[in-house]
Amino acid sequence: MTDLKNARPDTLMSARELFGIDSELQVPAFSQRDEYVPEVDDAYRFNPDVTLAILAGFTRNRRVMVQGLHGTGKSTHIEQVAARLNWPCLRVNLDGHISRLDLVGKDAIVMRDGVQVTEFQEGIVPWSLQRPVALIFDEYDAGRPDVMFVIQRILEREGHFTLLDQNRVIHPHPDFRLFATANTVGLGNLTGLYQGTQVLNHAQIDRWNIVAKLDYLPRDEEAAIVLSRVPAKDNEKGRQLIASMVAVANLTRQGFAAGDLSTLMSPRTVITWAENCEIFRNPALAFRLSFLNKCDAAERPIVAEYYQRCFGEELEDSWVHEADLS
Length: 326
Hints:
Residues 7-37 form the Cobaltochelatase subunit CobS N-terminal domain. The chain is an alpha/beta fold. It is built from 13 helices and 11 strands. Helix content is 38%, strand content 17%.
């Protein structure tokens, strides 16, 4: 794409052919890639329901929020759909350092013909609104209130954006799309797992047309992803090791759901554990450094029991009861 502002989707793609989904949906797409299009990750596994929700966002201009626990691949899911549609995509993390000025824009001093002049520089929201861009707000439930109210206006399908400093109203590009990811659904840190999340304005949550929930993958699919990230383990012994790792991760998730643990292993942690196995050549030591040391001391015996059940060996007692030795 030479001029992103004037670009429009110029082809249709089959959801069935692209994602293996039982659907007749034809999705608009771009025939050429742009510098803002994410790279395709062939190892990524798509959740059919969440994929359909995201495709509805691209096809029908629906505002889609993907909610789920950490490490489920929420943002990556949206990016990988965009990558296969050649749709330009921008991802903004709504951490505590993102301000209203970052989103809207601000005056800046620039050089023009050797002279310093003050010029308004557009923030990420007005820039994206004027282009066929899929804008993703990451960690949506961690955004500051002043930032969230900037976003509220563009949540409406034809929501115009007013730049007060410029006396200008921006009309959204017909192919601008808006997505968000969140660990909670705007109800705050109910589980104690996500410090910093906010209780969101219900009027704003109500403006999201679709809320899709993304859970962790089935064991076999999660193991396949870990193997794709750590190909050195793609042998009989390595596959058995990865299967045991994923089994431990699933037990921590069940323990978290039952209230026995205050933390859990995400697929990201399992990948880190497998990578650390390549460094330390010791699954138990890698487990300690990748996950066990992140756990509350009182919960380590439970986690050690999970490890013993899946690997058939005990962790070193000093690792499990380290806090008792001080």
